[in-house]
Amino acid sequence: MKKIFGFIMTITFVLLLTPCNVAMAQKDNGKEKTQAVVEIESPSALLMELNSGQILFEKDGETARRPASVTKLMTMLLAFEALESGQLALDSIVTVSEHAASMGGSQVYLEPNEQQTVEDILKCMIVSSANDAAVAMGEAIAGSEEAFVKMMNDRAKELGMEQTNFENACGLEAEGHVMSAKDIAILSRELVINHPDVLDYTTIWMDTIVHKTNKGESEFGLANTNKFLKKYEGANGLKTGYTSDAGFSMSATATRNEMTLIAVVMGSKSKDIRYADAAKLLDFGFANCSVYSDNKVLDGSNQLPVDEGTTETMTVKAKESFRYVFIGNASDKDIRKEIVIEKQNAPIDKGEVVGKVEYYQNDTLLGSVDIIAVKKVEKQKYCDTLYKIFCHFMNVF
Asked: Rounded to whole angstroms, how far apart are CA atoms 215 and 367?
């Protein structure tokens, strides 16, 4: 019986490994090409495709630099995560502290003890890049800006942001407050991938809030600091930043033909250079890149063998679809995918990673997708073994 099952599974794996033709270009070759055709004036720049996280262009992308208000991307991420967890709601009330109200630089002039909803604080922080709103949000989440900054740094480590250190929640100049272009791209991707609603706020061009204080109520206008939204077709975010020490920086996102790109520039000498460099990066990406998506990673097969389990097979699924960006002249030759089983012995928990599907072109690994168990598989007990032997005996006779 096991031999027959093994034969069937062997045939299944052969079918799964049958090459599927897709278009791609070697990543290294593509990267070399980008350096020749994209002339970037800013000291640091990086281009990333959103869904795959693939880096398409990089210029000094891992150097730590002052990020200015691009810092607020982390404050935004933690705010949306607090909303997702239920810690905050959009209509929750934030009471502004004297500390938050004292922030200089870009602000919406919140006053001590003023109360605003979480949604209006988000608008102030995202649209107008308000430092007072960013600190008020951090205090609402963590109790104090100091505790919130610790959360920011812990989250940065979790995301693999190796050149990042935060000293405050808003991006005001502080010794040791730094990020790299690569880290900004990683953070931007995490924010947009898992909280796409952020784009509903980053694309607001103008809005208003109402200040509610002891002096009465007054309307205050919000204007988006990201003028790139009106300068580039498909632009939908994400955050700009400027101080005299940091220069002009930004994380620019844009979507065309179902492809979203993240262009990060840091340390530009002027707004015009910042916007021009971001546009060059995005133009290159949209003109020279195509996306391959495989939504049938397991090719319809959802069973893998189990050893020492109460069942001989386990039901599995791909954790996500596969996505890869091909740069330049695409090739449709020698693409294959291989199943790698990493856990076959019971017990196996529901949702546990049991293997992966790897995608290759020739001998170059393009990427992989995890395979996870759909149901729990218990470890076989002595009585289960006896029962199987009994059933086999009865079938023989």
From this structure: 59
Average pLDDT per block of 10 residues along the chain, 397 residues long = 39 34 34 59 97 93 98 98 98 97 96 97 98 98 98 98 98 97 98 98 98 90 98 98 98 94 98 98 92 89 90 93 82 82 93 95 91 92 58 57
Name the residue with tokens 């796409």. Answer: 196
**Alpha helices of 143-180 — where are they, by DSSP H?**
145-158
Identify the active-site residue in 42, 52, 69, 249: 69
Sheet holding 364-373, edge to edge: 303-305, 313-318, 364-373, 353-361, 335-341
129 is known as an active-site residue: yes
Rounded to an integer, what distance in angstroms lies between the CA atom of residue 63 and that of residue 57?
Answer: 15
Pick the catalytic residue: 59, 72, 280, 356? 72
**Is 106 assigned a catalytic role?**
no
Structural tokens at position 376: 């729990």
Is this structure's pTM higher than 0.85?
Answer: no
331 is a catalytic site residue:
no
Phi, psi of 181 (to 5 degrees): -60, -40
Q: Burial level of 21, CB count in 10 A (0-12/13-18/19+)?
A: exposed
Tell me if 211 sits within 8 A of 107, measured CB to CB: no
- What is the torsional sign of CA 83, 199, 248, 103? negative
Phi-psi region at 96: left, alpha or beta (left = phi > 0; alpha = psi -120 to 50)? beta
Q: Which of 97, 128, 129, 180 is catalytic?
A: 129
